[in-house]
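Researcher: For the record, we're logging two predictions in this thread. I'll number them. Prediction 1 follows.
Model: Prediction 1, sequence and structure:
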Amino acid sequence: GLDDFPRASHPSSDEYHVDLRCWMALGSTTMARIAQLIGKNAMPYTVMSKTLTDQKLLDRLHWDSKRKTYSDYGLHTSAVKLVRVSPPQPNLPSFKRRKVSKE
């Protein structure tokens, strides 16, 4: 699932994630089937499903032949991490904030 959220230290439109792609493929395929069953326009979901389930496109975007595995990619660094921050008031939950350890 979304076990690697937040996905990148520097989120951008230049990152791709195998697990997110799989969830979107499943979702669009399911929505296309539901739309067909209830007599609605399934075309947008069908087009998205066909794109996301295209094995050649998946291989082109995610296959790492050196490691022999499908991989995410994006702008990642080990110089940024999430740290738990105490809430400003005692009755509020704590939260996480990005912390840059070196620039």
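Researcher: Logged. Prediction 2.
Model: Prediction 2, sequence and structure:
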Amino acid sequence: MQFQVVAASILVLMYFVSWSYARNLLVEVKSGTVRKKDTFSTDPYMSVTVCKTKQRTPTVKSSLTPIWNWRHRFPNVNDKCKIKFHLYDDDFGSDDTIGVLEETVGNFLKERAENSTLQFGKQGDSKIAIRVRYV
């Protein structure tokens, strides 16, 4: 009897662990079109935060059609973690925000295809191609 209780408890625990266990999340920021932010030029880059780990793409100088082909593997991620994409224009002093998108990893993956285009700005006039998946 005691063995059955322990075995049942282990099965329940394994179910919950398998549903929310931590995995590696691969985020790729490919390329896009960015609205002009400054009078002279736009120098876009993308900051990506998963859970509490923040990484960023390189800045593409003077480009409205940046190509990054950047990728980063975020460790120990589960569906409840937050994922945040913050698109900036790199400036002297403080950088200008072009747009921000934030939600849980689980919702992000459920609502979008593995290869997606994120839209930023009030009219969605900045579009960035990305790929996000567990590996």
